[in-house]
Amino acid sequence: MGVSTSSPEKGISLVTVDVPPVNALPVDGWFALADAVRGAGRDPRVRCVVLAAEGRGFNAGVDIKELQAGGADALVGANRGCFAAFAAVYECEVPVVAAVQGFCLGGGIGLVGNADAIVAAEDAVFGLPELDRGALGAATHLARLVPQHLMRALYFTSRTVSAAELHAHGSVWRVVPRGGLRSAAMELAGEIAAKDGELIRLAKAAINGIDPVDVRRSYRFEQGFTFEASALGVADRVRGRFGKEGT
């Protein structure tokens, strides 16, 4: 369990998250994920990274219980851990393909929003329930998946959007039955990995260089409001209702 790295095919590194019960990562888990993705990208033999998860869902965001118990230190740690993991995916020296099943929420949006391509199972749902969790953030990454006004509506309502809907918007490459998710992601990764290794790295750097939004700077700006909500006591008030009947 935790974060593991394997090499299922030549030129492809598979980074897998397995943190039961719902892949809600503690602070250490976010940093471990960042290290795994960066390490895979630095390997000169790797031409594509597949980011996947075991269990019911891809990622349920941060560990809320750790935040509730750890106070300001836990919040700062979660902010830094998420920032590190999201940046590692974005800055990975080779393309990253996200293989998403089940729920992809909160921090999961930060990961897939910074990935280069997304393959999703038919049961995958994507959303930012941040306003229901006493937090803010990752609108930067949701905006890379859906148009601006839809992003705002999803963000303010905490609603989710299906894999099929994201496919219609062009942000999901393929939607497949859950049993075929890993093979579909590996198929796309294999097509990428067939390219020249040096050229694919130059291509990744070039694509990042023409992005209209600096995702690291804009996400860091959002995180400042998360800390402000905590300092004002708003976050604790909202988190105090988390998991209780009717919320």
Strand tally, please?
9
End-to-end CA span: 30 Å
Average of per-residue pLDDT values: 94
**Biggest sheet architecture:** 6 strands, mixed
**Element-level helix/strand string:** EEHEHEEHEEHHEHEHHHH
Main sheet strand line-up: 1-2-3-4-6-9
Indicate the radius of gyration in whole angstroms.
17 Å
SSE layout:
Layout: E1 2-9, E2 12-18, H1 27-42, E3 48-53, H2 64-91, E4 96-100, E5 103-105, H3 107-114, E6 117-121, E7 125-127, H4 139-142, H5 148-157, E8 160-162, H6 163-169, E9 174-176, H7 181-193, H8 197-209, H9 215-231, H10 234-239
Parallel strand pairs: 2-3, 3-4, 4-6, 5-7, 6-9
Antiparallel strand pairs: 1-2, 7-8
Helix pairs in contact: 1-2, 2-3, 2-9
Q: In words, what does this structure look like?
A:
This protein is of the alpha/beta class. The chain has helices spanning 27-42, 64-91, 107-114, 139-142, 148-157, 163-169, 181-193, 197-209, 215-231, 234-239; strands spanning 2-9, 12-18, 48-53, 96-100, 103-105, 117-121, 125-127, 160-162, 174-176. The strands form two sheets. Strands 1-2-3-4-6-9 form a six-stranded mixed sheet, with helices on both faces. A hairpin with a 2-residue loop joins strand 1 and strand 2. Helix 1 packs parallel to helix 2 (64-91) and helix 2 (64-91) packs antiparallel against helix 9 (215-231). Belongs to the enoyl-CoA hydratase/isomerase family. InterPro entries: ClpP/crotonase-like_dom_sf, Enoyl-CoA_hydra/iso. This is Enoyl-CoA hydratase family protein.
